Automatic annotation (TrEMBL):
<dbReference type="Pfam" id="PF04118">
    <property type="entry name" value="Dopey_N"/>
</dbReference>
<feature type="compositionally biased region" description="Basic and acidic residues">
    <location>
        <begin position="28"/>
        <end position="37"/>
    </location>
</feature>
<dbReference type="GO" id="GO:0005829">
    <property type="term" value="C:cytosol"/>
</dbReference>
<feature type="domain" description="DOP1 N-terminal">
    <location>
        <begin position="38"/>
        <end position="357"/>
    </location>
</feature>
<dbReference type="InterPro" id="IPR040314">
    <property type="entry name" value="DOP1"/>
</dbReference>
<dbReference type="InterPro" id="IPR007249">
    <property type="entry name" value="DOP1_N"/>
</dbReference>
<dbReference type="GO" id="GO:0015031">
    <property type="term" value="P:protein transport"/>
</dbReference>
<comment type="similarity">
    <text>Belongs to the DOP1 family.</text>
</comment>
<keyword id="KW-0813">Transport</keyword>
<dbReference type="GO" id="GO:0005768">
    <property type="term" value="C:endosome"/>
</dbReference>
<keyword id="KW-0653">Protein transport</keyword>
<dbReference type="GO" id="GO:0006895">
    <property type="term" value="P:Golgi to endosome transport"/>
</dbReference>
<protein>
    <recommendedName>
        <fullName>DOP1 N-terminal domain-containing protein</fullName>
    </recommendedName>
</protein>
<dbReference type="InterPro" id="IPR016024">
    <property type="entry name" value="ARM-type_fold"/>
</dbReference>
<feature type="region of interest" description="Disordered">
    <location>
        <begin position="1"/>
        <end position="37"/>
    </location>
</feature>
<feature type="compositionally biased region" description="Basic and acidic residues">
    <location>
        <begin position="1"/>
        <end position="10"/>
    </location>
</feature>
<dbReference type="GO" id="GO:0005802">
    <property type="term" value="C:trans-Golgi network"/>
</dbReference>
Length: 357
């Protein structure tokens, strides 16, 4: 029986969505209103729609993708003055994502990234930030299959446009951006390792800067680390690259040497950066390490055991004052399961963590 107005029964719907950050998506009706703003904008929207209609996914060779992208790029130039939102943005993003299919040659990928860069260049930063969720799904997997000629263009798109946005626009996309950049630092000997690592570190500072607190400072990168831990937990294929970043940038959770007694370690003995990394959910750090210790690749297990020994010893205040008992059981069980590998290098690191220095 449906509820009647005034029958005294309360609705089970929540009063709010509980979001900590605002919903930044631009409604479709806003884009439609922009498209109908004036004659120039309507003509611009018609040209884009005509270029999109020339895309036929059922009967295309790779050369046809190049021709389609050239037509789309021609339709995008020049944009009308004071353009706020790109007309038919969702359709454009869909076609660009299809042009970034791993089965297509690198020439198509380069052309598609050029179109992304063109769109991002003439959209105002607030508008790009509000519509970033439309374009990002096509960009996220690029580094996992990109050739050496495509990677610099991808890095330029991230550096020149996305990382220039305010932190309030980058925060909702932080985890996706982390996952998109981790393949670039999997091989520490690759020629683009330094650039990918630098971009990821800039993302750490940009996304973690408090919106109202001014410049970045120590202890304000907790939001980035929480997203990073989630990325490691949910994406086994990205853990090799994540390990390279953790080895260089993870805060040390070892108690201060000046503490009077290691059995009475207080919160203040943790550095500010370490306190930020476990706020508001210290269990994410534990589950991140547990996921790495149970990875199918022995090199990943070895790397996370090294991090346990150097950054997260058993006498750390994290285990004593922050995590729950079931989280402690989880990471101990995950570490102990490494002996099933019957690998001496893993066993040696495990005993170092259990027995201490």
């Amino acid at each position: 029986m449906p509820f009647e107005p005034g029958d005294g029964r309360r609705s089970v719907s929540p009063l709010s969505t509980g979001r900590a950050s605002p919903a930044l998506r631009a409604p479709r009706r806003v884009e439609d209103a922009v498209a109908q703003k004036d004659k120039t904008t309507r003509r611009y929207a018609t040209a884009i729609d005509r270029a999109l209609s020339s895309f036929d996914s059922a009967q295309q060779e790779w050369a046809d993708y190049i021709a389609f992208l050239a037509r789309l790029l021609k339709a995008l130039h020049p944009p009308p003055p004071a353009l706020e939102y790109l007309p038919h943005a969702q359709s454009v993003a869909l076609r660009l994502a299809q042009c970034l299919n791993p089965a297509l040659p690198s020439g198509v990928h380069q052309k598609a990234l050029d179109v992304y860069a063109t769109i991002f260049s003439f959209l105002p930063p607030p508008s790009l930030g509000q519509t970033l969720h439309v374009y990002l799904p096509g960009l996220v997997p690029v580094l996992s299959f990109a050739s050496l000629s495509v990677r610099p263009i991808f890095y330029s798109v991230i550096e020149d446009h996305i990382l220039k946005l305010d932190s309030e626009h980058i925060r909702p996309a932080t985890k996706s951006l982390i996952l998109s950049l981790l393949p670039g630092i999997e091989d520490e000997t690759s020629e683009d390792f330094d650039r990918a690592f630098r971009i990821l570190n800039v993302l750490r500072k940009t996304s973690s800067r408090d919106i109202d607190d001014g410049p970045d400072a120590e202890g304000r990168d907790g939001y980035f680390w929480q997203c990073f831990f989630l990325a490691v937990i949910t994406n086994p294929s990205r853990r090799q690259g994540a390990l390279a970043f953790l080895t260089r940038k993870l805060p040390n959770f070892t108690p201060s040497e000046t503490s009077p007694d290691s059995s009475q370690v207080e919160d203040r003995t943790l550095p500010l950066a370490a306190q930020a990394a476990i706020n508001p959910e210290p269990g994410l750090l534990v589950r991140c390490f547990a996921a790495g210790l149970q990875d199918s690749q022995i090199l990943v297990q070895r790397g996370f055991l090294d991090l346990l020994v150097t950054h997260l010893p058993l006498h750390s205040p994290v285990f004593r004052n922050h995590v729950r008992s079931k989280d402690m059981v989880l990471i101990t069980t995950a570490a102990a399961s490494c002996v099933l590998r019957r690998d001496m290098s893993l066993n040696r690191r495990l005993w170092s963590w259990f027995l201490g220095p």
